[in-house]
Amino acid sequence: MTVLALENVTVRLGGRLALEDVTMSVARGEFTALLGPNGAGKTTLLRAALGLTPLSSGKATITSAGYVPQRHEFAWDFPASVQDVVLSGLVRRIGLFRRPRVTHWTAVWDALDRVRLAGLRNRPIGELSGGQRQRVLVARALALDPAVLLLDEPFTGLDMPSQEVLTALFGTLARERAVLMATHDLAAAAYTCDRLVLINRSVVAAGAPEELRDREVWMRTFQVGADSHLLKALGI
Amino acid sequence: MSPLDFLADLTNPDLAFLPKALAVAVMSAIMCGVVGCYVVLRGMAFIGDAVAHAVFPGLAVAFVLSGSLVLGGVTAGVITALLVAVFSQNRRIKEDSVIGIFFVAAFALGIVIISRAPGYAGSLQQFLFGSITGIPDRDLFVVGGTGLVLVLAVVLLHKELVAVTLDREMARALGLPVFWLDVILYVLVTLAVVMAVQTIGNILVLALLVTPAAAARLLTDRLIVMMLLAPAIGAGSALVGLYLSWSWDLPVGGTVVLVLTAVFLLAYLLAPRHGVLTRLVRTT
User: Fold this and answer.
1) What average pLDDT does chain B have?
2) What is the ipTM of this complex?
3) How many Å apart are CA A66 and CA A120, to the nearest integer?
4) What does the pLDDT average to over B135-164?
5) Which of the residues A78, A83, A128, A136 would you substitute to probe the B interface, choosing the one with the greatest number of B C-beta atoms within 10 Å?
6) What CATH number matches the domain at A1-64+178-236, 3.40.50.300, 3.40.47.10, 3.30.9.100, 3.30.450.40?
């Protein structure tokens, strides 16, 4: 079942062509990585799918989505606890002028359980490590029980153990819903994801990691030469 | 003068302006303390300063026409806040530059307007530095009523304002009206500033907005506690400041601000978890 579909999507940002004729889809149960160099339009693609960026042309359809923006977009110095932050993801569902009810708190605690932060739910967010912070943001998105999770660079600035915990978590979450993750970590993506989508303004190639063994495709996406360490790291 | 004498003066019918000034100062300090929490947490201190200056032309027009200062101030403040919000949509000019342009322009307009009024120097000083005399009875109700509206708005929109402050991108993704929540917050800041301008003055009002909330932030990691502490600190400082200014014949605005600053410095040094001295003691 398709949970996210972009059809011939073109996006202009301030006159610049950020995405050109992008067609792709994500199905339930899939862990998809969105790969591309800086400025390739990865974040723009996620925002376009969410309806946050107007499309110049084309069509984006998405079933209920949970968005995990880049970690530095968040006010980590705000005096809030872990569960307050997760609850903030439910603000629309709770409704204007209304207070959270038991069902909302249950959803918050379930989400924290999923990311293994149940024990830290009263901890001030300023006291969390980078990996814990990322898991709080994932829990906030999960609280809405979305069909697809959109992750924007979830590994940036994290150490290896935190990355491993998160990768395992995303793998589990992908099995019951869908996960689309923009990332720079090509080797990890090739190793853990079911599908890779290579973009550089438009989709260069897409498929299972073992189908994307053509060096030409990677060289074109990342604008690198045949002797690049990038290709060696990928083993192609 | 002992606190008891101060109490006697407060109840002396010949000094009727004094309890009125105290009531207005305390109520406006509470309002500023509540919205000040958002000003501090969102890093909006410059906007707070801008709004404080921007209400000036409205006050000046109201003064010249002998109209309601509150109405004039709120009108001017809201117009300037909206101008800033609209012009900031153009990404080529950053918001702080837009603010810098409009609030000085508004202030300049205020000076030009008030220079046409008789008794120019005296009224200008009163606006800039505050005064405890000449508060009409009507203003007590205006300030009290506005305070209730403001606190109600902050309580009712609490979770929306928190969501926008935490993460604008996520708030947009959730479908919250981010722009309108910003506008509401600017309007609330404007209301609090206008209420406080009479006693504390146009220039010093920023302290009432920022200092209690900043001190409260040092004392707690919980927003609810912070939003109760900040108005308490503001109101307490307004009371102590007014008492000190009355007993030693000091300017009210300046005294209140200095008391607030002292509270902030104490919190900075002695806060239970994050105080500088507290940490020093704990590590030795």
Assistant:
1) 89
2) 0.89
3) 22
4) 93
5) A78
6) 3.40.50.300
